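Appendix C reproduces, verbatim, an entry submitted by the partner laboratory led by Prof. M.T., so that reviewers can inspect both the input and the predicted structure.
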Amino acid sequence: MLSRKFADMDRLRHRALIAGALGVAGCLVGAILNPTQFYYSYLLAFVFWLGITLGSLALLMIQHLSGGAWGFVIRRPLEAATRLLPLMAVLVVPLFIGMRALYPWARPDVVAADVVLQSKRLYLNVPFFVLRTFVYFAAWMALAWFLNRWSAEQDERGEEPAGHKMRALSGGGLVLYVLTMTFASVDWLMSLEPHWFSTIFSVIVIGGQGLSGLAAAIVVLAALSHEKPVAEVATPARFHDLGNLLLAFLMLWAYFSFSQFLIIWSGNLPEEIPWYVHRIQNSWQWISLVLVIFHFAVPFALLLSRRTKRVSGTLVKVAIAILVMRIVELYWIIAPERFPEGVHVHWLDVAAPIAIGGFWVSLFVREIKSRPLLPRYGDEGAYELEVHALADH
């Protein structure tokens, strides 16, 4: 018989499916009425949900390398999220279909009239773009497959040798993730304005993915915190650890975001500065201000408080707010290329994230229920030892 919490999860799964179906219906209508807007909105939704998925993969590898009880309590949500990479691989197909609507370098007439785009044609061309995307997803799915397989083996056979294999893979896997995501961020986001470039941009995207993945994991852990055996390990001390890590990722994202702005603004080069000019003029300046206040200043101030981090309900609110701001930041990155004259929020900007998110959440619930909520073995030893260790805090 399902517990009340698992019954709630089933209801969440069904509601997410319904929301996803309604979102897809809205997207189909939007794709017919306004194809260009659909592809921009779809890119926003795709990058957001992929950010949570890949952020979870990166955190999982960090946990295998560093150890610690903070990762023990969220390992299952992280693993469940990584198993959704095949879904995201399928969902990348509409971006291939809409490449000409999204990217100037994919339109031959534009390239023919632009010397800069002609010089970048060796890299920015349709066949190579598609090939690179396949390589990215192949690498990410391979990492997720082995980590999940070995985690299941660890539950059955003990800490070693599966634990050693996961640590060994995670070292090289993190390097591979950073390398592939560096190119992917250029392909999917930076090349929307192909005259612009920044060597820090990919680091900002990667930091944002880590922030998204951790915020989502905190929300899931809090939702399961009354369900045994999670209730025995989801202590205030663990939420405090996760809150500290969330603060660290927030500061990392803010540091690199400000560094990029400062370097480009002080350099004042004609090929770099227009990207920011589009985003701090007209009504876009208010979105910039919202990001400064609600994506950094307010969460930063709240996460400095020990009480905020130890009370799961409060920490979850901060995590949800950060996830909302992640969508706002991605909108701020993507939309000004289409609407440089000012903010223009289309209803597809809401429908597309709901469409992808509904199916993502539904499959995530299925995956989180498919395995025990806690791994049997952690870096501190067996689960029973972990419970006793946490009980001392």
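The chain has a mean pLDDT of 91. Additional entries are available on request from the coordinating office.
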